[in-house]
Every structure is written in C-alpha cells, then in structure tokens.
C-alpha cells in the first residue's frame, strides 16, 4: 500500500484564497483586483426574519373563513410587536396580537403569517489582501500571503486582531488570572487551557479568540456556548502545543491574525489561524499535499505518543500497512508510529 | 442496464472516514475478488472525493499489476487486450445525507401509518409526522411553524380513501401553500401527494405558483388496502436526483460513468439476496459501524427492509455517545484499568482525528469498548423503532448477522470481532455470524445489475468471512452451573462433546464451509430457540473461522458490578472466544 499524501498543518509562509460569502444573496461592493483591508465591507445583504404563525381565528373564536372580516391589517403591512392583527367578538374585545415586529406575509385558513423584520448584514473582508474573484451577488475571494496553522477543533465564527501570548512554554496551561484587560480585542495564545474560568474571563473581557495546543474535553461545550472563537491546534485534554507551532506564534506576537473556528456539515472546514505577512519574505512556498518523507517534521496524533513531535527517519511499507520511524524531540529514542497517526508540520 | 459479461470490474465504496476500492477479475471463467485497497476519504478542502478514489485505485493498480486509470486519472473503460482497464465501475457512498422527509396526513391509524411504512427506507430520515386528526382544520401552530422554519426536503401529504371528501386535503394544501410561498424558492420542499386521487387536482391548484406537486398512487386507497410502491418510488427518485446535484458525488458518478448508489440502499438489496440464497426465513441483520454513526438493517425475504441509523459512531459520532451523559459507558467494556475521564479524553482526540489507528493494547481495548457502546445504543433504538413492524416475529431476530465497518474488519482476530457483536447486540438462539471483510456487499448489488453471474460468483467465493454459528440461550443461570451440553457430529463422526458452564463462552471446531449436526441439551431455565425453555434438539449448523460459538453468558448479558470482577470476566470471555 502506498503512503498517502498528507496536508501540512503548519506553514511559515503560504498563499491562501479566502472565500467570503453572504448567507443570503446581496450586493457585492468590491471588484476583482481591488486591495482590501480586514475591516472593509465587501458585500451587503438582508437576512429574512423567521416566520411566525398566529392562529387568529382560534384567538377570536370565529370560523376560519370569517377571519378576513375581522382583520385589522393588510397583507404586506408592517406591524409593531403587540399590534392588533385581528379583533372580533362583542365590541372587538377579543384580539389576536403580533408576537413580534414584522410584516404580514399572508393570511390563510384562519391564520396570519407574520415575517419578522429582516436584519441587515454586512460582510467584512476579515483578511487584508487582493480580491481575485467576485462571486456575483454573494461575496468575493481574497488572496493573501500568510503564515498559517490548521487546527483540529474549533468553535465560534471568525475574528481578526493582534496575537497576545499568555504562556512562556508550549506546555504551560492558561491560568485564569493571566487573562487580563490587556487581552481585550486580542487573540490569546497559550499552551493549553484546562480551566473553565480562563474561558469565561476571555469572553467577559471580550478577547477576540483563543488559540491553544490542548483544551480540556469538557470545555468544548463551554466554548461553543460562549460563542468565543477557539482554535485548538494539537489535541483535547492536557496536550501541550507542538514546539514548531508555539515558536511560530511567539514569533508573530503582536501581529494581526484571522482566527476561524471552522464548521461542520457538507462544506466542513477545519479551524485555522492565518497571520497576514505584510511583505513577501523570499519565495512564497505553497506546500502541496504529499506523502511524508525522511526528514519531515511530524506530530503524533494517537497514544502512546499523542502530542509528541519529531522527525521522520524512515518510511516502512510492509504487509499492507505503512509505518514511520520517528525520532521524538527531546529524546534520542526512535519509535515506530503508524503512518495514519502522523501529521506533517511544515 | 444491459447485462454483459465483463472481464474486470472496479467497485468503490466512499465512507465518511475511509474509501475502499476492490478489483474483480475473471479467473478461469469465474469472477473473483483480486485485490482491495483502502485510503482516507478526501474532503472538498483536500481535493475532493475523487482524489481519494483515485488514490485507492492507484493502490489497486500496484496490487494487481494492471493499469486501471489513464494518465489523466480517468478510468480506462472497457478493458483492453492487455488486461488494462475495467469493463464497469460501481460506486456506492454513505456520504450523502439522508433525505429529510415530513409527513402530513389526516388519520394516524390509516393513511399516515401507511405513509410511515412507505417512508421507512434506508436513505430517508423521517423528520416529522403531523396528523390533522380532529374536528375541522386541526393544525398545531408549533407543527406548522416547524414545517416552515426548518422546511424538510420533501413534504409528503396523505389522507383520504379514493373517492372520499376533498375539502380537508384542499384546506391542508391552502395552509401549507401560503406558508411555503413566503420562503425563497430554493428553500421550498418538494411536495408529494399520495392520498385521495380525487383531491389531487384541487391540491395542485392550491400549490400553483409555489411548488409543483408530484402525485403518486394513494398509499391507502381504502381502509383494507395499502399501496406503498408509488410513494417509495418517488422518494427514491427524489433522493437520487439530489445525489446527482451534490458536486462531489456528481463528479464521482461522472468519473465512474455510472449512477451512484447509496450504500445502505445497495446493502439492503444484497442482503435480500443473501436471505433468499440461504433460505433464511428470519432474514438477515446488517450491522454497519461507521465513523459518523452506526446503522442497522433488518432484511427479511418478504416485506420492506427496516433500517435504523443513530449518530453514535467511532469517529465524529463519538460526540453523540458522550452526549448520552453516562461517563462510565465505555470503560465498563474495558479490560484495562483507565479512568473514565482519561477514556473520554482519548475518545475526544479520536473524534477529531478519526482516521488514526490504535497502536497499543489499551487503545485497541478502548476502541472496541466504544464500538460496543455505540452499536449497543443504536441497537436499542432500532428495537424500539421496529416494535410495530415485526409482524409476529421477535424484533430484530435474524438467522444471520453480517457486520461491516473498519472496527470489525480490522479487529486483530475474528474472535474479537465476534465478541464485539455478541456484546453489543446480544443475539439469542442460533445465528450465523459473518463479516463483510472487504466492504464488498453494497457494491455487489450494483455489479449484479451489470453482470449478475459475476456478482453471485464473487459473493459465493469472496464476499463474506463466515465467523461461524452462534448458539446463545436466552435466560440467566448461576455462574458455573451447567448451562447446556452439546455434541457436534460431522459426517457421522462425533467431533466434540462438552458441558458449557453458565457465564462462559466455548467453541467447537467446525471449519469454513463445513456442515455438522449439533445436539443441544439446555438446562431447564434456558431457551435456545427450539420452542421453549429447556427444550433441546438437533440442528444442522455451518462452520466458520471460529466454528460453533456457544455463548452461555446469559441474556440479558450482565456485567459484574465489582471493578476487579468485571475486568476479570471481560478478560476471561476474550480468552475463551480465542480458544478452540
């Protein structure tokens, strides 16, 4: 069996094409070739509000076909929350009220269909770069030169801001007290996060996001609930951040970065952190997916060496299985690891 | 499809975590499995599904020494004189999400009950069933809002006997039509009407300009008559139409030059063939343990195949297992003493990186324990869901269990695979156990459409790894007491005779394709499925990799409460199932 190509999880410098898309069709404000900054609005649209069904005939105690005579609003009319939609009975004492502000979208079978007021939405570039493609009515694709790391689990949407380091080594756990006011409006980087209070403080102090090597398994639900952008780079539990990942983030402390929590579903996307590189430093390296080779920096993803990093010494293919001999960092020991339990770093 | 006699075929099965490829070639006139390959499924971000399929096919090329792909990565069809290329490709995939269907009808006991039966299909997820039974237009506002705010992909409207009143259906249509007219066209569901044929035109009129209504035969034309075929055919049509719209899957179909099949649908067809071929009156139970979830299929020679899918899997599906909030759920099946917190930490890491493989004894133990829990939870759901469809038979009771999924096929020994099945499903009576070791079964149904003879030959020779026949008495006895005495005779000669103590597992030697006569003498409290408790008898049995497996641990299976005793019991059972 051949060794399969593996995408790298870490790039010191690469080119990304970042697709920005409105959830509903709208108006695109940029053209191909435009340069955009992270905060620039590149498209606008309006998201339709949810639909509410008011059983007005039942509320008034009238037959369904009698409702049109009792209506106090017309189809298409805007209404306020609590406004009378229909009234009936003696002196019109019985009423059906609008549960939300919105528009009367239709009346049928004794019911009033109310559409909540649409919400305007603005799509920002979120990454400084060049528009390489316009998606008519939907958004644009922005190309940028970045340092990139791909995480294994994430939460939240996207946030863009400067990186701030809160660990001195890749194995340091984020202490809640070190999440302070200086973290406001920044993306906090730490070895791992095992304390719920650190997450709560990051959210309360309005940190833009959190990038950690490991995250306690039970804190995933907390992160999702808080809506905080979280990028976990190495593993769940007390897993330290891989040395090369930590070194890259430390080298870029203070630089702006785009943290993306990823998403599930058919268009699944892994969580990422992209650090735009102002000027291109030497030739841009776009690392294609390729099989592991001798000398590659790798991370082990399964017990008993989960989270350890090292260098590939040899690739062995035998009896339909592929193995790699890996020298682990900080240890002269060379161990055999199943090829599928390795990730390439760089 | 035109039936032909090709020389070589390529079968591809794309799963959430792994993609499997198999090369079928004719050897001296008989179609045989020549090679299988397995690679990690590639997502859209990694180059799309086709990339993984090409890698798997390239691995097959290495194994068979033939070129299957041309330089552009396209399949070489047909096979040339030098043996390169293939004569057909069959692609099955479990990736396509199920078709989300909602049913709206007038009466629970008649039309809706029939519609639920019709929609019990391997590729359908029944999201909501709304009955308007009651005086007047009995819509529940919550149901209506849910149907609009989370619209299903397909809305099936049923109700009324043929020739009955039209007004209730028309009113139902008016309400739904007004509601759906407020949605963007892309969000509106496809509407299928399978009710009173007289109401068809009025209903179409209410939906005019909103959605097109597909009318099919009434599922319940009269209280005594049921007609499910029309609705089932339309649901199949809509599912495969949507499958063709999915970019990744459409590319795959184009590449293969053939229509893509949903793997569970394809598996159901093959298992029906299996049930007929071996005259399995109680049918076959198909079990698929995947990364995203577990699925079970109960296929009987007659009647619809019943399926049940649960989100408990061994990859991303581990999250659903955790949400059951039973921290000790997985560790209770483990021999190795690790804390439940440590176990869940490790499982979380497997959840986010499902493509890895266990490397230590402890990790193997953990993975197999998770499978027992995931499959067990799925099975409990299936038994509850199927309760109304058993038609006099005990729910889920089958003559054969066929297991699929990497955790079974990559188990280090056949004994481990069998023990996982026994622990998770706790089957009773006499049941044959088999593994779809090469992930061939779904593909064989597609192959049968092209070349039925080749499909049957591959099934007979290569498709299943028969583990053996299980004898599992129902009932519980005191551990150590004699549960049953068994005597195995092969070709008139006694091969083995033994007393099996309660709480243990024993094996009798009977090889693959061997047949024998098994005499069973159960203790008074146990039922081996021969009529009643304590009744013994003589049965014809078939062998397998494990021969005859006597599971006298009792049903329902109980694990000792004490930690040490539990681990000792688990270790003993693992030892016993490995000993012939």
Keyword list:
A: 346 residues, Glucose Oxidase, domain 1, SH3 type barrels, 11-stranded mixed β-sheet, 10% helix, 43% strand, elongated, B: 580 residues, alpha/beta, Ubiquitin-like (UB roll), Rossmann fold
Written description of the protein model:
The complex is a heterodimer of chains A (346) and B (580). By secondary structure, chain A is mostly beta strands. Chain A is 10% helix and 43% strand. Chain A starts with 9 loop residues before the first strand and ends with a strand. Chain B is built from 16 helices and 22 strands. By secondary structure, chain B is of the alpha/beta class. In chain B, the strands form four sheets. Chain B has an eight-stranded mixed beta sheet with strand order 13-12-11-14-15-16-22-19, with helices on both faces. Chain B is globular. Chain B has helices at residues 49-64, 108-118, 141-149, 167-181, 200-206, 229-245, 247-256, 263-277, 318-322, 340-352, 361-386, 406-409, 414-425, 441-450, 452-463, 563-578, and strands at residues 8-14, 18-27, 30-40, 88-93, 99-105, 124-131, 154-157, 190-193, 213-215, 261-262, 284-289, 294-299, 306-310, 400-404, 429-435, 465-472, 482-490, 493-501, 505-508, 515-522, 537-542, 548-551. In chain B, a hairpin with a 2-residue loop joins strand 2 (18-27) and strand 3 (30-40). At the A-B interface, strand 5, strand 9, strand 10 and strand 18 of A face strand 3, helix 1, helix 3, helix 4 and helix 10 of B.
């Amino acid at each position: 069996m051949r060794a399969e190509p593996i995408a790298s999880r870490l790039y010191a410098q690469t080119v990304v094409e970042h697709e920005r898309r409105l959830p509903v069709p709208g108006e695109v404000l940029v053209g191909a070739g435009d340069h955009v900054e992270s905060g620039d609005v590149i498209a606008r649209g309006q998201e339709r509000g949810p639909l509410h069904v008011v059983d007005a005939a039942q509320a008034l105690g009238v037959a369904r076909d009698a409702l049109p005579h009792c209506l106090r609003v017309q189809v298409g009319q805007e209404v306020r929350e609590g406004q009378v939609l229909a009234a009936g009975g003696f002196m019109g004492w019985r009423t059906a009220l609008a549960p939300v502000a919105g528009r009367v979208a239709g009346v049928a079978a004794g019911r009033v269909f109310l559409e909540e007021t649409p919400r305007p939405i603005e799509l920002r570039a979120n990454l400084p770069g060049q528009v390489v493609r316009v998606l008519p009515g939907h958004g644009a694709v922005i190309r940028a030169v970045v340092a990139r790391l791909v995480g294994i689990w994430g939460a939240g949407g996207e946030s863009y801001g400067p990186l701030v380091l809160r660990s001195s080594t890749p194995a340091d756990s984020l202490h809640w007290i070190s999440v302070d006011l200086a973290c406001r409006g920044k993306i906090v980087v730490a070895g791992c996060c095992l304390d719920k209070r650190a997450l709560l403080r990051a959210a309360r102090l309005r940190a833009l996001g959190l990038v950690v090597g490991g995250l306690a398994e039970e804190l995933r639900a907390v992160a999702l609930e808080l809506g905080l952008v979280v990028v976990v780079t190495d593993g769940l539990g007390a897993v330290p951040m891989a040395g090369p990942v930590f070194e890259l983030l430390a080298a870029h402390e203070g630089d702006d970065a785009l943290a993306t929590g990823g998403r599930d579903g058919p268009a699944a996307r892994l969580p990422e952190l992209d650090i735009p590189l102002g000027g291109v430093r030497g030739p841009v390296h776009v690392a294609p997916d390729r099989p592991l080779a001798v000398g590659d920096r790798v991370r082990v993803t399964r017990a008993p060496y989960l989270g350890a990093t090292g260098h590939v010494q040899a690739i062995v293919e035998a009896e339909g299985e592929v193995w790699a001999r890996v020298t682990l960092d900080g240890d002269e020991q060379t161990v055999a690891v199943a090829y599928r339990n390795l990730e390439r770093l760089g | 499809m035109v039936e032909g006699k090709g020389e070589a075929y390529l079968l591809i099965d794309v799963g959430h975590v792994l993609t499997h490829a198999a090369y079928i070639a004719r050897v001296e006139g008989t179609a045989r499995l020549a090679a299988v390959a397995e690679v990690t499924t590639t997502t859209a971000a990694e180059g799309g599904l086709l990339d993984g399929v090409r890698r798997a096919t390239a691995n097959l090329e290495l194994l068979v020494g033939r070129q299957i792909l041309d330089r552009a990565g396209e399949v070489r069809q047909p096979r040339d004189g030098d043996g390169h290329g293939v004569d057909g490709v069959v692609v099955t995939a479990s990736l396509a999400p199920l078709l989300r269907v909602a049913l709206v009808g007038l009466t629970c006991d008649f039309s809706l009950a029939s519609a639920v039966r019709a929609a019990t299909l391997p590729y359908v997820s029944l999201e909501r069933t709304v009955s308007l039974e009651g005086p007047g237009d009995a819509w529940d506002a919550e149901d209506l809002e849910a149907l609009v705010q989370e619209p299903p992909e397909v809305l099936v409207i049923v109700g009324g006997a043929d020739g009955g009143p039209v007004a209730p259906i028309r009113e139902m249509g008016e309400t739904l039509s007004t509601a759906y007219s407020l949605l963007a066209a892309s969000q509106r569901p496809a509407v299928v009407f399978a009710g009173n044929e007289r109401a068809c035109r009025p209903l179409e009129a209410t939906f005019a300009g909103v959605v097109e209504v597909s009318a099919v035969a009434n599922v319940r034309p009269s209280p005594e008559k049921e007609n499910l075929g029309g609705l089932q055919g339309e649901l199949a049509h809509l599912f495969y139409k949507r499958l063709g719209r999915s970019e990744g899957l459409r590319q795959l179909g184009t590449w293969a030059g053939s229509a893509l099949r949903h793997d569970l649908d394809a598996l159901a067809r093959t298992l029906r063939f299996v049930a007929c071929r071996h005259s399995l009156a109680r049918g076959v139970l198909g079990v698929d343990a995947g990364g995203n979830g577990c699925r079970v299929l109960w296929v009987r020679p007659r009647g619809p195949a019943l399926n049940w899918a649960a989100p408990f899997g061994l990859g991303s599906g581990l999250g659903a297992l955790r949400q059951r909030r039973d921290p000790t759920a997985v560790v209770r099946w483990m021999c190795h003493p690790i804390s439940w917190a440590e176990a869940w930490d490790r499982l979380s890491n497997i959840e986010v990186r499902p493509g890895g493989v266990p490397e230590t004894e402890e990790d193997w133990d953990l993975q197999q324990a998770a499978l027992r829990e995931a499959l067990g939870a799925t099975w409990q759901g299936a038994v509850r869901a199927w309760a109304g469809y058993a038609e006099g038979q005990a729910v889920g009771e089958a003559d054969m269990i066929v297991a699929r999924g990497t955790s079974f096929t990559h188990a280090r020994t056949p004994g481990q695979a069998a023990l996982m099945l026994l622990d998770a499903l706790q089957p009773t009576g006499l049941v044959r156990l088999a593994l779809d070791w090469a992930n061939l079964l779904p593909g064989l149904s597609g192959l049968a459409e092209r070349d039925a003879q080749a499909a049957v030959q591959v099934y007979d020779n290569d498709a299943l790894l028969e583990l053996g026949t299980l004898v599992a008495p129902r009932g519980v006895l005191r551990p150590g007491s004699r549960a049953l005495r068994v005597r195995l005779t092969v070709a008139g000669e006694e091969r083995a005779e033994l007393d099996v103590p309660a709480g243990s597992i024993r094996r009798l030697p009977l090889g693959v394709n061997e047949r024998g006569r098994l005499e069973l003498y159960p203790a008074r409290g146990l039922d081996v499925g021969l009529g009643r408790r304590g009744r013994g008898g003589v049965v014809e049995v078939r062998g397998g990799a494990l021969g005859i497996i006597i599971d006298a641990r009792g049903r329902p299976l109980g694990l000792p409460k004490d930690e040490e005793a539990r681990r000792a019991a688990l270790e003993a059972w693992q030892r016993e199932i490995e000993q012939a």
